[in-house]
């Protein structure tokens, strides 16, 4: 699989406030700002009807990804990715379908690989302690 660090994500309740903190307090530069929605994204993150605003900040060899979901935090969501404070580790892979096919049978995934409307292919899985790990192919 040979994954490399891509991003470390934090779900926030107020994207502009969070960006100000990470930019002004920690000195991270904003790399990009974008939104993602659609059925593939909602299925990929396991949150019905999900859409989100994203900001990527430069943290050297990886990015800090700040995410604000709309509508904010459905407490019944299985994954909790849309809850403020939620975190996940994002690892880039060259071939998501091969990586997915090579996962052990006991590895819990949210859904099979999905192609979001931004063109990024994603698949979320859980480590043995339940921490969310996103495999992505851009």
Overview of the molecule:
- The protein has 138 residues and is α+β, with helices and mostly antiparallel strands.
- It has a single domain, classed as 2,3-Dihydroxybiphenyl 1,2-Dioxygenase, domain 1 (Roll), CATH 3.10.180.
- Strand 7 and strand 8 form a beta hairpin.
- The radius of gyration is 14 Å and the shape is globular.
- The model has no long low-confidence stretch (mean pLDDT 89).
- The number of helical segments is 3
CATH architecture: Roll
Overall number of strands: 8
Poorly predicted regions:
none
Largest sheet: 8 strands, mixed
Oligomer: single chain
Q: What portion of residues is helical? A: 10-25%
**Which range does the strand content fall in?**
35-45%
Considering the chains and any ligands shown, give keywords for the structure.
single chain; 138 residues; alpha+beta; 2,3-Dihydroxybiphenyl 1,2-Dioxygenase, domain 1; eight-stranded mixed β-sheet; 3 helices; 8 strands; 17% helix; 38% strand
Question: What is the element layout, followed by pairings?
Answer:
Blueprint: E1 4-11, H1 15-25, E2 30-36, H2 39-45, E3 51-59, E4 62-70, E5 87-92, H3 96-101, E6 114-115, E7 121-126, E8 132-137
Parallel strand pairs: 1-4, 5-8
Antiparallel strand pairs: 1-5, 2-3, 3-4, 6-7, 7-8
Please summarize what this structure is.
This protein is of the alpha+beta class and 138 residues long.
């Amino acid at each position: 699989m040979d994954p490399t660090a891509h991003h470390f994500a934090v779900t926030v309740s107020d994207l502009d406030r969070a960006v100000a903190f990470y930019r002004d307090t920690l000195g991270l530069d904003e790399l990009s700002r974008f939104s993602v929605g659609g059925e593939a994204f909602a299925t990929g993150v396991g949150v019905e009807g999900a859409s989100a605003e994203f900001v990527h900040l430069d943290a050297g060899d990886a990015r800090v990804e700040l995410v604000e979901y709309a509508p904010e935090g459905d407490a019944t969501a299985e994954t909790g990715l849309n809850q403020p404070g939620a975190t996940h580790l994002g690892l880039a892979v060259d071939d998501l379908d091969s990586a997915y096919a090579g996962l052990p049978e006991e590895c819990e995934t949210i859904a099979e690989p999905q192609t979001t409307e931004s063109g990024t292919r994603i698949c979320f899985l859980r480590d043995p302690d339940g921490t969310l790990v996103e495999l992505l192919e851009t």
